[in-house]
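Batch job 17 of 40 flagged for manual review because the log was empty.
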Amino acid sequence: MRTTPQAFVLALLASSLFGCLGQPEASAPGIKVDSDPPGAVLSINGKEIGRTPYFWRSPPAGKALLQFAREGCEPLERFVTVDPAALADVVVKLERVQGLVLFQSAPSGAEVTVNGAFKGKAPLLSTDLPAGRHHAVFRLEGYDPREVDLEIRDRTPQICAMNMRSIYATIRVESTPPGAAVMLDGIHKGQTPCAVEEVLVGDHKLKLVREGYKDFETDLRVAQTGTQPVMVKLEEKFAAIDVVSTPPDARVSLNGEFKGRTPLQISGLRDGVYSVTIEKAGFDKAIREVRIARNQDAKVDVNLEKGTGVLALTISPSGASIFVEDEMKGTSAERPYLLELPPGSYKVRVSKGLIIARRILR
């Protein structure tokens, strides 16, 4: 409470009568008490009697203590000297309460605005905020804006501290086996194990690439948790050999082991050299050597050639007609008669005059 050292001497304004509603009439003596701002609780000599503006009728002579109290303002006391025969005015100006607020941020350096007005960078001591509710916003590059409401009631110091939340995080990427290239949103970040810093909080695309293993891709949501671990077990990549033949349905063997019939894919192969054999009745066997490197797939495409054997016929006497499957093939001579035939069984007939010889040859 503040008390002025001197008493106020009230001047005689007029003689008047008082109305029944407490308002001074032209000749009524008394004291008109008001405050700026109005609405202050008024106490006289320690007794609360109303709110300003207030008319004190017929005050007793002597000194009186006027006390003013209003929310958001400093309390005020005034001594007045009362002349009961006079009409006087007492008007006081109340000083609004200004709070003491220390604004702090972690990390420090956040810009502080209060009710939209920039105040400075934390740590910051504000001494001019009036009583009432206020809205403060902390802003720091690389961090989410933070907002808080505070209320000032009096001059009691208070602290408004804010932990800022970074918009960046760190992810630590490890893989089994290590040595995989790390791609975040299509940008190369290093090789596992590695820490990727200053990653914006939110959704990202993560890709790991390592020779001999399948590419690993995933959607990654980065949270505000400091360092976020990412553990990946890479799946070994195997190669395959696609085997195609014309005509199809040929037997396929890999390194001597039967695998199936064409068209065929032989999968699960590591780097190395393989022997692929393709066989079909009536066709020559085809053998291909295939080298697989860096787990790259390979293809074998062959046109099978019809297989033939040589049938040597020695016929005596010469000049005999030779038939194979009743088809005339030629006439025998002194030297052997050679026929190229596919593998299989054949009916051979040789005739000269009345002599006919038949054989089934395989």
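Reviewer: the log was empty due to a logging misconfiguration, but the result itself is present. The mean pLDDT is 86. Unflagging and moving on to job 18.
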